[in-house]
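Encode chain A's predicted structure.
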Amino acid sequence: MEFGINESQAMIAETVKKFAEAHIRPNIMEWDEAQTFPVELFKKMGEQGLMGILVPEKYNGSGLGYFEYVTAIIEVARVCGSIGLSMAAHNSLCTGHIMAFGNEEQKTKYLSKLATGEWIGAWGLTEANTGSDAMRMQCTAKQEGDYWILNGAKNWITHGKSGDVAVVLARTGELLDSNGITAFVIERGTPGFKAGKKENKLGMRASETAELIFEDCKVHKSAILGNVGEGFKQSMKVLDGGRISIAALSIGIAKGAYDAALKYSQEREQFGKPISQFQAISFKLADMATKIEAAELLTLQAADLKNRGEKCTKQSAFAKYYASEVAVMASTEAVQIFGGYGYTKDFPVEKFYRDSKLCTIGEGTSEIQKLVIAREILK
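Encoded structure for chain A:
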């Protein structure tokens, strides 16, 4: 069992770190304040191979594994959680779903554009009244000859306005039937498909979140990923990988908050010495460092299983649940270490604090992760 960082991971970490410092850090507060989704940045990330890390080279991807993928997300999120979130959603959800369940024609058509950042992807599962309870979705697709007509809406969709293509889950069978949901890949500009309200969020403000609306949206049967009725089961498998990416996102945010707090504690003096020399502060840092390390090990364990093509449902839920809670804990403690300064936008930790909370909610809440874990261990 290898616990060290491999050469590929080290190279990815260094490359991504330099890119983030040059192209992301100078703009993070401007993007955050204005809720700007920086599309051009993602084009540049595509040029660096960061929009198709897991995609095979024959589809213009980087052809790397989950260790490298986790490393890249951590380094981006260490600087800005919003950009890390959008990168993760693009790679794991839309691109990941097409890569796992698309046919050769669909892969050739879509992956080559998604992997280079030419196109940005969205993934539509959640609805206004069906967050965790996905099988009660109301968005429907009715068959008419060789076509399917979609009606309904999807909410909380990353890249809901700016995405060029979306993988959309719609009900094609009876309510609560796990074989009654189908995945469709739908391009922006398709008649009847439009974006709705953009959400005004607490954190992750530079990552676009919006509604997808379908009004008699007509798509050819060739838009179906896999077979009719397989969408729900496909989504559960996609989310196994997606949870690894949210765990990595969480670790990046936690590390960013920890980095800032560690540095500040060694520079800030009270009562004639750096505050890091007070046990109250040093113990906070020790707890943060330990929990971040544990979260990373859980995440790499899940990544290893994913690389080997083995089932990782339990391990990815372990990683996502624990890492997301650690991100909230670490960013909260970082604000506390900064004191009053930590509560201002002149210092970086308040943004880590705001961004971190999404990690315990998106792609399955902490409560859903515990449900998944309990189900796995009680089999």
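The CA atoms of residues 39 and 162 lie 8 Å apart.
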